[in-house]
Write a structure and sequence with these properties.
seven-stranded mixed beta sheet; 31 strands
């Protein structure tokens, strides 16, 4: 019987992280070949397991290579190595074994845009995948949207119903091939097939569905297109009549549409794209990137229709996320509007019957295919800030890749977030699995998606939460649903959750000063907060400052009608000479009286409502003083400010009390003076932004000295405003303070569930006992 040489060792290795669906096993196989190592590799429910035997130097290089040389889409979190007795009769080579099911928490791969190699094949007339809309390999293609269970193998995806042809089978089983165990691998012979349906859902038996859809789009039609995570609605971006028709049918009056372009060069014809924005556009996530439009004088109707992004200096642009989109945009030859396949604020449709039912009266035709979508995933949205690229909607390409937190929870946690921009978060040990964007829970279909996401995350990750975490607000549908789950319930105050989310994504837990500005959230004192200065870390906060409270006339009616907030902020002032007063003169006195009714007009410190009031004063408050989507007035105010070259600023007042109160009255008085003097609203908007940033920096300097801090967090939905973030970053940095803002997690309520989970995890772990 042969005896292993003394220099021969055998290791059992377990690798965790994003190591399934990213070409990790073929990478391990190649790594083993370099030093003629013996053994095997396979997926299991917790990651990748390797048994390997060989020379000590070879094994050392092998273990090091697992992290240093991992595939581009992989993320290795841990490599656990255990020495084993060398086998006297080891296998003759290194092989890839079938996956092993079982318990564990393997990380779920996100959907990935078509890689350059696959794009080359797609457009190569001599390649067997020429014009194959579903081209993919281990470096790209659908993942999260098609996986039914873990481990991630073809049998556990919606590709299981497509048997491989001999050619694809040969690639799939060859460790040296880049399609080795690429689970969605297919070709025109064995893969999904496109089909063109008319507006009634009747198959048109088209022999060239993409060409026929291109013709429809160029004739002004609206077509529903089945993508990776659901249907989109598409129309020609230069066709004003078609875009206006889409708005009317979809009931989306003003909110901008995203635009699909063929490549970076096409994007540069419409927008100014810097290196970071170009990298985001080209990235594997293929998000919608908000980029600055080229000066209007250089834009013609042939480039982009005015109704695509009315009144905006930015466009939401994305590059093709799939082979289908690459083929379609090239067939059309012009930018295409691409927006979620739904009526306004509903979830996307995912299958043909649902699409035909829900999009009846909107879509003139449907470009579909027979690969089922197991999981709805919307488009992600990112924006360039002074502090870096920031995710505003975390969905396709990003979710559900976990975020490693600076603290581990002793028991699995479920955080159900807020009510708008809903997400849920399942936390296991130090990993937080954040669901994709689910929508606003006041819509029934979005609420159903929310409930499904809770069950889906628990099942897919293989854990059952032991605690559920909610917002303080008892009327949030997420809070009410949590009470039905038969789990212990913990609560986290809304603005603390914002702070905690930002800290957590940066791997920090220590106390900081935070400016948390948003619409409204229930404060710990039972009032409506939204313009808060907090001191604290993951485990708890104290309120050390806030904007002066003001009434919200009619409660939520003031959110939909920003002019009502102008009424409240103008209390006690003459206003009948102002445009906003003249526009609403018939109801002004009634609303002014209503603002005095505490039972009908709750007080709030909301920064969002202050933005609404200033926007209304400037005539930037939607249609007839009514907004059609969340944050519209504030967005219009930012757009106006971005057009100004003015260097002036207003000044807020600030008390010496504890907590500090920021007084808006000097700013409102200055704005009224400028309006009466005929100052351009762009300059007024710019001066307001600078004023808010300056008072944040002045308050931060005082509070950081008082509390021995040097770091300021910026969080909350108001900090989706890139101009405000830039102004605050500049002003705070001049004070010698370090600024932390969001990057991987939205500053809006899409990050609340992460903050909730991080807070309770830190409290349970006893990082610092909550006060």
């Amino acid at each position: 019987m042969p005896v292993p040489a003394a220099s021969v060792q055998r290791f059992a290795i377990h690798v965790t992280g994003v190591v399934q669906g990213v070409g990790f096993r073929p990478f391990v196989w190649h790594l083993a070949q370099l030093d003629q190592l013996l053994g095997w590799v396979r997926n299991d429910a917790g990651g990748v397991h390797i048994e390997v035997q060989g020379s000590t130097p070879g094994l050392r290089r092998f273990v090091e290579g697992l992290t240093v040389e991992a595939p581009p889409l992989a993320r290795v979190d841990t490599v656990t190595v255990e020495a084993q007795e060398p086998l006297l009769s080891p296998p003759s080579g290194f092989v890839v074994l079938a996956s092993l099911a079982g318990e564990g928490q393997a990380e779920i791969p996100a959907d990935v845009a078509t890689c350059e190699a696959c794009q080359g094949e797609l457009l190569n007339p001599v390649d067997r995948r020429f014009r194959h809309p579903f081209v993919n390999c281990t470096d790209c293609g659908p993942r999260y949207s098609i996986v039914r269970d873990l481990p991630y193998d073809r049998a556990t995806t919606t590709m299981a119903s497509f048997p491989l042809c001999p050619d694809c089978e040969a690639e799939y089983v060859d460790p040296a091939n880049r399609r080795f165990h690429a689970e969605p691998v297919c070709c025109p012979r064995c893969g999904p097939q496109l089909r063109l349906l008319d507006k009634h859902g009747v198959d048109q038996a088209s022999s060239n569905p993409i060409g026929d859809v291109a013709d429809l789009l160029m004739s002004g039609a609206i077509v529903a297109i089945k993508g990776i995570g659901g249907f989109h609605l598409a129309t020609l971006a230069c066709d004003e009549a078609a875009v206006s028709r889409l708005r009317a049918r979809k009931h989306r009056e003003d909110k901008p549409f995203a635009v699909l372009v063929a490549d970076i060069d096409a994007a540069l014809q419409l927008c100014r794209v810097d290196d970071d924005e170009a990298a985001a556009l080209r990235g594997p996530e293929a998000p919608i990137v908000l980029v600055t439009r080229i000066t209007e004088a250089r834009i013609t109707e042939a480039d982009i229709a005015p109704s695509v992004a009315p009144g905006r200096d930015e466009l939401g642009v994305l590059l093709p996320p799939t082979g289908l989109h690459h083929l379609l945009i090239r067939a059309v030859g012009n930018p295409i509007v691409l927006t979620s396949g739904n009526r306004s604020d509903e979830p996307m449709a995912t299958d043909d019957s649902e699409a035909v039912s829900r999009l009846r009266g909107i879509a003139d035709a449907y470009l579909s295919h027979d690969r089922p979508i197991w999981r709805r995933v919307d488009d992600s949205v990112v924006r360039r800030f002074t502090t870096g690229m920031t995710v505003l909607r975390r969905a396709r390409g990003y979710a559900p890749s976990p975020i490693r937190l600076p603290v581990a929870t002793p028991v699995p946690l479920l955080a159900v977030g807020a009510e708008l921009k809903s997400t849920v978060c399942l936390m296991v040990e130090d990993r937080a699995y954040l669901s994709p964007h689910l929508g606003d829970l006041e819509h029934l279909d979005a609420f159903e998606s929310f409930r499904e996401a809770i069950d889906d995350l628990s099942r897919l990750i293989g854990v059952r939460p032991q605690i559920v975490i909610t917002d303080l607000h008892p009327e949030y549908l997420s809070t009410k649903h949590a009470a039905t789950l038969d789990l212990p319930v913990r609560t986290v105050q809304h603005h603390h959750a914002h702070l905690a989310a930002c800290l957590a994504e940066h791997g920090r837990s220590e106390p900081v000063l935070a400016a948390v500005f948003d619409g409204i959230g229930l404060g710990s004192d039972g009032t409506l907060w939204g313009g808060e200065l907090l001191v604290g870390g993951l485990t708890g906060t104290s309120r050390v400052g806030h904007l002066a409270p003001v009434a919200m006339p009619g409660g939520t009616a003031a959110i939909r009608n920003p002019w009502r907030m102008a009424v409240a902020y103008l209390a006690g002032r003459e206003s009948d000479d102002l445009a906003v007063h003249r526009a609403h003169a018939a109801h002004w006195a009634t609303v002014a009286a209503l603002s005095e009714r505490g039972d009908l007009s709750p007080m709030t410190t909301s920064a969002g409502r202050l933005f609404d009031a200033v926007a209304a004063l400037c005539g930037l408050d939607g249609r007839d003083g009514r907004v059609t989507h969340e944050g519209q007035a504030a967005q219009q105010l930012e757009q106006a400010a971005r057009r100004s070259g003015d260097n002036g600023f207003y000044q807020f007042g600030m008390t010496n009390t504890d907590p500090i109160v920021i007084d808006h009255n000097p700013v409102i008085d200055a704005i009224l003076g400028d309006l009466r003097a005929g100052e351009p609203v762009e300059h007024i908007a710019r001066r307001f932004h600078r004023a808010l940033a300056r008072v944040v920096s002045f308050a931060a300097e005082r509070l950081c000295v008082a509390h021995g801090l040097d770091t300021v967090v910026l969080s909350g939905g108001v900090f989706q405003n890139a101009l405000l973030v830039g102004d605050c970053h500049h002003a705070l940095s001049r004070q010698g303070l370090h600024v932390i803002a969001h990057h991987r997690v939205p500053p809006n309520d899409g990050g609340i569930s992460l903050g909730q989970a991080a807070t309770i995890a830190a409290q349970l772990a006893g990082v610092v006992r909550p006060g």
